[in-house]
Amino acid sequence: MTENRIRVLTLNCWGLKYVSKFRSERMSAIAHALASSDYDVITLQEVWVFGDFEIIRAAVSNRLPYSKFFYSGALGAGLAVLSRFPIIGATINPYSLNGSPIEVVQGDWFVGKAAASVLVAHPVLGQLQVFNTHLFAPGGDSGPLHLQAHRLVNAWELAKLARQAAEVGRYVIAAGDFNSSPASLPMNLIQDHASLRDAWVESHPNSLAVPNGIPSPLDAVRIFGITADSPLNSFSAGKRLEAMARKFQGKRLDYIFFRQPSSPPASVKTPILKVLDTRVVFTERIPGSDFSYSDHFGLEATFEISHPEGGDLADSSETHVPAPVEPPAPNFVLATVPNPAPAPPRKLSPDSITEILQSLTACYRYSQYRARSQLTVFAVCILLLLVILIGSAWLPVSSFNPLIILITIFLAWAATTFLYVGFVYGKWEVNSLTNVIEELEIYRDSLLEHQGR
């Protein structure tokens, strides 16, 4: 155990009660595996049963005595953080958009997707803010713009929180299931606006290359950091994948980001957080069974804390520690640049903001159209209820009465539901999109004005 290194794990546990397969067995196996690990911080997603969290917490309590289980939405956020370092603060920020309440099967609205965070007191870094999140799932990276918009709003809100944490002098680690591929717009937004660095890319420069051929499932995990929809996972083996996922033998959806503080506290020396190594873990089957720990693999990152000479804060581009370039697999070729240089600090460009605004505007228009359609259904239900109410005065008592009652109950339920989703939720979605659109327009205008000087 050393105070100059931090080991972080993030794992989507797939723990929905009554739905997730072998949930109890898998949660016990995860707890047993974590009990013998040496992680300093663990972020878990999809732990929706508090009893499962208690099992995991009890198993790791000797090494990780501090923990926080977060509540949000109707079914809970499914987010939990365990830490070796004292937790001195915790908060959860539900995302303003998480799908629609009428989309029951998707369930994102009911679980209340959010950005949870704990503030820990680290003996060397001082204040370290750890974010744990699970972004909106539907839509993918190539789905309709109105579906991608909700995840973009999630990414924007998380990026603002991470940036604010750094601006008050805190180190930041953000981990979780981002439901986005590395080159997608939400990932660019998070990294550019919050200046967050992708720990996997920092230690695996070749992971950004596109394979000329299809890698083996093992190489896909080892080189590209695939954590979901891998043929190696018992719950996704044989699953039909989209073209990009087939090319990479799965998807990289789980990330660990990090950054230095923007305004570090005054001190003689300011520590620098560097990533040493990252690995995809929990890839094997649970011992004694034929199924995996979860439908996602886990991701771990090892960070080193170093001290620059003097008291000046080192440039963020100097926090990169190149890892040895891993040899390509024999059945495909990587297009790489020898000895890649550290990437310069990224900034959200006006063009990227414009692209984001296009998606948000498409969602805004779709939301207005959907709200009008749902209110039309409400009006039709009310009209039919009036017809039944008036017509019942001329209907004789007969065996059709129970059917009439059932139809009346159904129409009343439908009217109430579509009034809520069309008016209350519809207004909420439109107003939330309006707020984010205006924020991004102001930010873009300020960037353009600055560039014009």
UniProtKB/TrEMBL annotation:
It is found in: Membrane. InterPro entries: Endo/exonu/phosph_ase_sf, Endo/exonuclease/phosphatase, Sph/SMPD2-like. The keyword Thylakoid does not apply. Keywords: Endonuclease, Hydrolase, Lipid metabolism, Magnesium, Membrane, Metal-binding, Nuclease, Sphingolipid metabolism, Transmembrane, Transmembrane helix. The keyword Signal does not apply. Its main location: membrane. It holds the Pfam family Exo_endo_phos. Belongs to the neutral sphingomyelinase family. This is Endonuclease/exonuclease/phosphatase.
